[in-house]
Amino acid sequence: MIIDTHAHLDQPEFENDVDEVIRRAQEVGVEAIVSIGLDVASSRSTIALAERYEIVWATVGVHPHYAATFDEATMDELRSLARHSKVVAIGETGLDYYRMRAPRDAQIKAFEGQLTLAKELGIPVIVHDRDAHDDAVAILRKSSLPPPEEGGFAGVLHCFSGDVQMAFEGISRGFAISIAGPVTYPKAERLADVVRSVPVSALVVETDSPFLTPQRFRGRRNEPAYVRFVVEQIAQLCSEPVEAIAFATSDNARRLFRF
Question: What are phi and psi of 54, to 5 degrees?
C-alpha cells in the first residue's frame, strides 16, 4: 500500500473524472491521498473532496503564489477550517522565488503566519520551497515549532529540491522529506543523491498531481496512481525492494499526518 502525501484533486484538470482517478489509484494500491489547499476557496474544496471520498484527506493553507491575499481574516478562516475532522495539516505554505507571483515580503508574512497557526493548533505544516532555500531554512530555524513527539514529524518539505545538507537540516528539525516525480527524470542527479543519502525513515512520497508527471508519462496529466513510479525509483536508488519502500514511506506518512 502507498500513500500519496500531496495531490491537488480540486484542480480543473480533475473536474470531469475525479471518480476514475481515485479508482485507478486504489487499483494500484494507493490507500490514502492528501489533497492540498492552495487558498481559502481551494481549502474548502479539498475538505469537500475528503468528505466525499474515504481515502482522501485534506489540508488548508495559502500557497506562496497567493500570499498577497493572506491577512488576519484569512488566518481566522484557516483556523476554523483546520478543525474539520479530515484536515491533517496546514499548507501548503512557503516561498516561491522562481515564479514570484506574490511579493517576497508577502510570501514571508504568509509563511510565518501559517507556521504560527500550525504551532497553535498542534498539527504539521506542508512547506513549499522553490529557489528560496536560504530564506526557507532561516524562517524554519526561527519558527520555534515544537519538536514532534517521538516517531512523529513537525511537517514535510514538499517536493524536495534542495541538496543533501538541506535535507539533513530539515530532518534535524523534525521534517519529513517528500519525493515526487522529478526523482524519475534522467538529469535529477542532486535529488537522487538526496534519496541515497538520507534515511528511508525520513522519506514520504507524493505526486503533486496534476503536475510533475513521472518520466514514463511526462507531458501528460499526473495523477495519484503514478505515485508508484516514485516508489519504484526510490527503491532502485536505494537498492531496496519496492515493497519495503512502499511500506516505509506509507508508515512515515501515517506518522506525519497522524491518520
Answer: -60, -35
Longest CA–CA span in the chain (Å) reads 49
Supply the range of the domain harboring residue 134.
2-257
Map residue 258 onto helix, strand or coil: coil
Burial level of 186, CB count in 10 A (0-12/13-18/19+)? Answer: exposed
Domain count, the chain: 1
Single-letter amino acid, residue 201 = S
pTM, two decimal places: 0.97
All 3 cell numbers of residue 259? 491518520
| Cβ-Cβ contacts under 8 Å for 180 (sequence gap 6 or more) | 6, 158, 159, 160, 205, 206, 207, 208, 212, 230
Residue 32 sits in a domain whose CATH number is 3.20.20.140
pLDDT digit string, tens, across residues 147-169: 777 778 999 999 999 999 999 99
The per-residue pLDDT for range 106-153, each reduced to its tens digit, is: 999 999 999 999 999 999 999 999 999 999 999 999 997 877 777 789
